[in-house]
Specification:
single chain; mainly beta; 6-stranded antiparallel beta sheet; 7 helices; globular; iron
């Protein structure tokens, strides 16, 4: 088992106030809530393996996680001391007796795990590293340009005014900060080995490929493949200057036949555009035609796109499908600068369709747009091409779908221990609509309002469209076109409230305060079919108005599996039909993962059969155990789809004298039986995604 460790932060904070003679050496500030810390283990250690690993299992598994900051601030000139595991949870006491609370698990400071498997000797070697220590420094130094996914309850209206000013006037300093400290950003979602690295003087010594961590922003962090030390931060714009934008998909696509890496960058502003691009194994970057309109409706105003939150997308041998859910950033993304929060800038409109934008991989053109009923998803599964009876193209893709974006609110509980201190502020197993100090109810902004400039649960309408000129952003996201560059903070004091974030009523919004909220349903694997792609493309390109039969296509779906999230499949089935999908699922021993906002998270593992249906599903589910994304590693000596193993980190809740713990679980993918496990440590490790490369360094199962 990996040892518990105590870490001394390299960063120090200086308190200018004189030390009180009566002050204690260390002061307890505020009340920690929510999430617990996970230690880093810098030196590789062999961890105990019970059972037998397959002899063919050799290689390295990388996993991303959050290290759950808990910074104990000492009085006056004492250093900032960080203990792992510590008693606090996502709480950063500062030197002025205030407490900085990180609200959302996606915002925990980054930690990357590395497991090296050697089946021939039945050993697993483990090390890990914090990769966002520069963010810790920025928090301690009160950097108000930090942008989080979840809300920041510490920001007053005037803090937000200051934040907008510094975001706008300090944009030119971001590259310098990232070059000086490659740990200065929170990049913690998907880790990928052998990822292409941009060329040029800034990247000398990094090679053409490397280990990277990706997120939903246009930022990528390069790590050392063994020590996991951060080496560089780059953007997709570094591949090609015209690939501009603020957001991207955390999950790229890779073509197993060509070796191409494909992703997009979303440019927010007056004209929202998705810039899709590919990078070849030789480093050649190819741009696709930007996606900037809904081809279903040629009217200029109605066809304009809104900036949606898109975490992943689909790709076949012929086509790329970029979804556009009706879960949008308000005011072209401008509201994120005001709130300092991605979540508070979203709004959901279930009356609008989900759009599927189709790009032809051969012509690089945006050829068609399909519409579907409103839904939301984090993760896609498989995708492939078919032909109909007329010989026309059909795109088939699977996605873990939710009926609405309410799952975003429920995600506040990801990684929490069950039964921790927040249970006191829950009603009926859900967070009280009255009880959150952050102005949140059920993962939403409180309908009763908060101190952060809210009126009746909405952002005050007295504000100004801060940082906009003629209602639009500068195209390249700089201070150009924004009449604030020469203004100081004092002159911005007229900005008393942000522009309103539109909100559309949902079923839960219309309920009385004392009514029990209906739970969010777990995701279902939907199989969408985009029929007659060439006919649709021809009809939508026809400007005469004569060919209208296929101009407004609606995509239908069938449900092929239920209760599957964080999906993985046999990577050899990429761009091909597949049968089995592995994921996390609800546990019979805890509340649904879709409703864990206050009670914590307990999940099992599921193997779903998309041909035989839900009744054929197999599960691994144990009391007190919460499983992470299951990664399927195929047996290299077999072509059978479910011949291989499943790797998953499992957190175990401590009870009585038994401490929290976690272990690496190894299952036979065929029948989901346990064949081995390796103890990691006496702590919980909330991880997101992982990738596996073999002992020769080749990618096997990446994310």
């Amino acid at each position: 088992m990996a040892p518990s460790v105590e870490i001394q932060s390299k960063y120090q904070i200086q308190n200018t106030h004189e030390k009180s003679q009566d002050a204690p050496v260390q002061q307890s500030v505020g009340k920690p809530t929510g999430h617990e810390n996970t230690p880093e283990i810098l030196d590789p250690v062999k961890i105990n393996v019970a059972g037998s690993l397959p002899s063919w299992l050799g290689g390295v598994l990388y996993r991303t996680a959050t290290w759950h900051t808990n910074i104990h601030s000492l009085i006056c000139t004492h250093s900032i001391r960080v203990r792992f595991p510590g008693p606090g949870k996502f709480n950063i006491p500062l030197g002025d007796n205030s407490m900085y609370h990180i609200q959302h698990p996606f915002d925990g400071l980054s930690l990357v795990h590395r497991f090296e498997f050697d089946g021939s000797s039945n050993t697993v070697t483990y090390n890990s590293r914090y990769t966002a220590k520069g963010v810790e420094k920025r928090i301690i130094e009160r950097d108000n340009t930090l942008l989080f996914f979840g809300p920041d309850p510490c920001k007053t209206v005037f803090d937000k005014i200051s934040s907008v000013f510094h975001h706008i006037t300090g944009m030119g300093k971001i590259r310098d900060r990232q070059d000086n400290d490659p740990s200065s950003e929170i990049i913690n979602v998907a880790v990928t080995p052998n990822y292409p690295i941009p060329r040029g003087e800034r990247f000398e010594g990094l090679g053409s490929q490397g280990l990277v961590v990706k997120t939903d922003a246009n930022m990528v962090q390069v790590l050392d493949e063994v020590t996991l030390e951060p080496k560089k931060i780059f953007t997709y714009t570094d591949f090609e200057p015209d690939i501009i934008g603020q957001l991207s998909a955390a999950h790229h696509q890779e073509d197993p036949a060509t070796g191409e890496t494909v992703n997009f960058v979303m440019e927010m502003g007056a004209m929202v555009q998705f810039h899709v691009f590919s990078v070849s194994p030789s480093g050649v970057t190819t741009k696709f035609e930007p996606i900037y309109q809904n081809l279903v409706d040629p009217d200029e105003k109605r066809s304009a796109l809104k900036p949606a939150y898109v975490h992943s997308f689909s790709m076949t041998e012929k086509y790329i499908v970029v979804p556009n859910y009706p879960y949008w950033f308000s005011y072209g993304g401008l509201s994120t600068l005001w709130h300092g929060s991605i979540y508070e800038s979203f709004f959901w409109d279930g009356t609008k369709p989900t759009l599927f934008h189709v790009l032809d991989r051969e012509t690089k053109k945006h050829v068609a747009t399909f519409q579907a009923d409103a839904y939301f998803a984090f993760h896609t599964v498989g995708a492939w091409d078919e032909e109909d009876i007329d010989g026309d193209d059909v795109i088939v893709f699977d996605v873990c779908a939710y009926e609405s974006a309410d799952i975003i609110g429920a995600s506040f509980g990801y990684g929490k221990k069950t039964g921790d201190g927040e249970a006191a502020s829950t009603e009926n197993g859900r967070k009280s609509r009255r009880g959150s100090a952050a102005g949140l109810e059920n993962g939403r902004a409180s309908r009763r309002g908060s101190a952060a400039g809210l009126e009746n649960g909405r952002t005050s309408r007295r504000g100004s469209t801060v940082g906009m000129e003629n209602g639009r952003w500068s195209r390249r996201g700089s201070a150009a076109g924004i009449k604030l560059a020469k203004m100081d903070e004092e002159k911005l004091s007229f900005l008393v409230a942000p522009p309103p974030t539109p909100r559309h009523p949902t079923f839960q919004d219309n309920m009385d305060d004392d009514e029990e909220r209906p739970p969010v349903r777990p995701s279902e694997v939907r199989r969408y079919r985009l029929e007659g792609v060439n006919k649709v493309a021809y009809a939508q390109a026809d400007e005469s108005g004569a060919y209208t039969k296929y101009k407004r296509p609606h995509a239908d779906y069938t449900v092929v599996a239920e209760d599957v999230e964080l999906p993985r499949m046999d990577p050899r089935r990429t761009c091909k039909p597949y049968r089995y999908v592995y994921g996390v699922c609800d546990s019979e021993y805890g509340d649904s993962y879709a409703n864990a906002s206050s009670a914590g998270l307990i999940t099992g593992l599921i193997k779903a059969d998309t041909e035989a249906g839900p009744s054929a599903s197999l599960k691994w589910d144990k009391p007190g155990c919460s499983c992470s994304e299951p990664i399927f590693i195929p047996d290299p000596e077999s072509d059978v789809e479910d011949h291989g193993v499943i790797l998953s980190i499992v957190n175990v809740k401590g009870e009585g004298t038994r401490k929290d713990s976690c272990f690496m679980l190894v299952l036979d993918a065929k029948d989901m039986s346990e064949i081995a496990k390796a103890d990691i440590g006496e702590y919980n490790a909330a991880t997101f995604h992982g990738s596996f490369r073999d002992a020769a360094g080749r990618n096997v199962a990446i994310n």
